[in-house]
Amino acid sequence: MRRPRIVPQLTTAAALVLVGGLATGSVAAPAAAPQVPDPYFPADGNVGYDVRHYDIHDRYRFGDRHLEGVTTVRLVPLRELTRFNLDLLLDVEAVRVDGVTAEFDKPNAHELVVTPATPLAQGEPVDVRVRYHGFPDRIGWQGETNWLATGHEVVTMNEPHMAAWWFPSNDHPSDKARFDIRITTGAQREVVSNGVRVGRTVHGRRATTHWRMTDPMTTYLAFFAAGDFRIERGRAHGQRYYNAVSKRLGASAESYALHMLRRSARITAWLEEQLGDYPFSTTGGLVTSIDPGFALENQTRPIYPSWIYPSVVVHELAHQWFGDSVAVARWRDIWLNEGFATYLEKRYVEARGGPSTNRWLHRQYASTPAAHPFWDLEIADPGPRHLFDTAVYDRGAMTLAALRNRIGNADFRRLLRRWAAVKEGGNATSEQFERRAERVSGEQLDAFFDAWLRTGQRPPNTAAYGL
Q1: How many Å apart are CA 444 and CA 434, to the nearest integer?
Q2: Where is the Aminopeptidase N-like N-terminal domain (predicted)?
Q3: CB 463: neighbour CB atoms within 10 A?
Q4: Omega before 160 cis (within 30°)?
Q5: How many CB atoms neighbour CB 186 within 10 A?
Q6: Strands 229-236 and 177-186
Q7: How many Cβ atoms sit within 10 Å of the Cβ of residue 406?
Q8: How far apart, in whole angstroms, are the C-alpha atoms of residue 157 and residue 445?
Q9: CB of 148 closer than 8 Å to CB of 155
């Protein structure tokens, strides 16, 4: 996620959730696994099973903004389950498990509790089919009202929560899955989503567009947008791309936005030089006429407001490696997403002849006194209300710039490429990255990382801390 230039903190960042989403009949995950429910958002995610695939069929009506759908969740129980939870804010009509009607309950707005006719056997995949409906734009939950829509356009984008407004899921980054997304709406509208467009079927005044994401993806990165879009697709710089710009922007803004999106393939190719092979089969982006106040790294196809500019494109495309392919294991590790993407913004400026990343680091350090609140936040554990604070972005990037100074360019380049390759398609913690940095460099870095990530103080101005 990239904050706008004039807004220091995302206004829709979630407040602390007080209700847990546990799966009855399950056991705690092994110690090496991500902690679910997440301490930051205890209602998110459910233990006891692993989702492999989402098959989403949603129908959206622009007139009254009504959504109805049927989603089949293929999951594998991690032990015998007598019942389990999914995360969904819409009203539920029916649930079937492997074709058999199941009992269900919604003890609160967020939790769908499913009781299958017979217990689910450990390790045996099952298909859970949920039928649901509602008005997403009328739904608020724990201070969030995340549905973005007008009478002409709808875009499902937000972080850390979005999925529960339009499909049932195990809504935590630690449970990635593959997706088929089919959206039915007026035939005059274009529908854009993650991955590759499989097809579009017109039936009278409506049309169904089918998108497929074949690489594992976290639930908050899944999206669809429907509206009046100008589309460009093709190949450039070795990348397959699909770009979409809202025609509601007006001719001048539409032309500018498309010009910015055309840079995506070239920037992706530059990032490959820094990080290794692009982890997905397609790139591109979408510019919406709705201004949510931020851009978001939706997998394969970031979404931008009309204030798109080059560094925000670099930021969101860098997230395809760090945030999407390598996703956080816990929300407290968000600096692994935002710090890395911000660092690569600075590297891109340097590569194009601008100030060096090292110069930026020293300028930021010198201009921010030790007593400044900028240093107060422990960015390795910022808390749920501070996930998108400026310090997470900028001090995260400063940590990486300082690490590059500490271990040297060659080891740092090797570290980023190795990290992206080893963790591709999975999840990671800050501690894992720190240990990887020590293995690659052969140096003991506990004091370095503690100073930059955990003390809530300005690091000492010495070479040991990359300064």
Answers
A1: 10
A2: 53-221
A3: 10
A4: yes
A5: 14
A6: unpaired
A7: 19
A8: 37
A9: yes
Cβ 148 vs Cβ 223: under 8 Å: no
3-class SS string, the chain: CECCCCCCCCCCCCCCCCCCCCCCCCCCCCCCCCCCCCCCCCCCCCCCEEEEEEEEEEEEECCCCEEEEEEEEEEEECCCECCEEEECCCEEEEEEECCEECEEECCCCCEEEEECCCCECCCCCEEEEEEEEECHHHCCECCECCCEECCCCEECCCCCCCHHHCCCECCCCCCCEEEEEEEEEECCCEEEECCEEEEEEEECCEEEEEEEEEEEECHHHCCEEEECEEEEEEEECCEEEEEEEEHHHCHHHHHHHHHHHCCHHHHHHHHHHHHCCCCCCCEEEEECCCCCCCEECCCCCCEECCCCCHHHHHHHHHCCCECCCEEECCHHHCHHHHHHHHHHHHHHHHHCCCCCHHHHHHHHHHCCCCCCHHHCCCCCCCCHHHCCCHHHHHHHHHHHHHHHHHHCHHHHHHHHHHHHHHCCCCEECHHHHHHHHHHHHCCCCHHHHHHHHHCCCCCCCCHHHCC
Residue 2 in tokens: 């990239």
Question: pLDDT of 73-112, one tens digit each?
Answer: 999 999 999 999 999 999 999 999 999 999 999 999 999 9
pLDDT per position as a tens digit, 169-228: 999 999 999 999 999 999 999 999 999 999 999 999 999 999 999 999 999 999 999 999
What angle (nearest 5°) sits at the alpha carbon of residue 293, between those of residues 287 and 298? 50
- What are the backbone dihedrals phi and psi of residue 32, each rounded to the nearest 5 degrees, phi first? -80, -10
**What confidence score (pLDDT) does residue 4 get?**
54
Q: Global pTM?
A: 0.92
Q: Identify the pLDDT of residue 22.
A: 38
Closest CA to 423 of 332, 340, 314: 340
Q: Position of tokens 């910015």?
A: 260
**Residues facing 226 on adjacent strands:** 154, 191
Tens digit of each residue's pLDDT (9 = 90 or more) over 137-154: 999 999 999 999 999 999
Residue spans of the chain under pLDDT 70: 3-35
How many other β-carbons are positioned within 10 Å of the β-carbon of residue 258?
18
